[in-house]
Design brief:
alpha+beta; Alpha-Beta Plaits; 2 domains; 4-stranded antiparallel β-sheet; 3 helices; rod-shaped
Length: 192
């Protein structure tokens, strides 16, 4: 019977050691391993977030660089289609072009025109009506320079007729053929 008791005690000790190992594993090791796994996942998520933040930072720097290089283009757009009619600028533009092309401005009027085109709630029109005179080349150069100007404009009406004017040169009167033109120009501007 002694042998059976030894065997029973041995089995009991082995069972206790095994049970304590399982207990330690369940109470200490598994929670620590579980926490390790959670921390590992959290670290990975934070690395991905940092990587995403870094890519957004690079994108922001890229967009900022593009904006800085396009800054002059934005000012050109603002010149082409300003946010109000800017009649003084229109007058200055027409006068400058007329002087450069030797076209005489007989009269000029400005008005704000309601825009009746469909889907046109983003812009309005400033209308410039003028009567000009000059020779054919000067008038054609006037329109060529007007087209080159940065302000977005359209010539919507043009009426030309032949006329004469007398010019004094070296004490003599000379009759010269000229063209008189009635022009309506529409300049665009953005609605606020």
């Amino acid at each position: 019977m002694r042998e059976t008791t030894k065997q029973s005690i041995s089995i009991l000790v082995i069972t206790l050691v095994f049970a304590s190992a399982i207990f330690v594993l369940n109470k200490l090791t598994l929670p620590a391993f579980s926490m390790y796994q959670k921390n590992k996942i959290l670290i990975q998520e934070k690395k991905e977030t940092l990587s995403e933040i870094d890519s957004f930072k690079k994108l922001a720097e890229s967009l900022n660089e593009k904006y800085n290089t396009l800054g002059s283009d934005f000012s050109k757009i603002a010149e082409a289609i300003p946010n109000n009619p800017k009649f003084a600028d229109l007058l200055a533009m027409v006068d400058t072009i007329a002087r450069a092309t030797e076209v005489k401005i007989e009269d000029i009027t400005f008005r704000d025109v309601p825009n009746k085109k469909t889907n046109s709630d983003l812009y309005s029109l400033a209308e410039v009506s003028l009567n000009i005179s000059g020779d054919y080349i000067s008038i054609s150069n006037f329109f060529a320079e007007l087209e080159k100007d940065s302000r977005l404009t359209d010539v919507v009406s043009l009426n030309m007729k032949k006329d004469t004017r007398s010019v004094a040169t070296k004490g003599k009167q000379k009759v010269e053929e000229i063209i008189k033109a009635g022009v309506i120009i529409q300049a665009y501007y953005q609605n606020n």
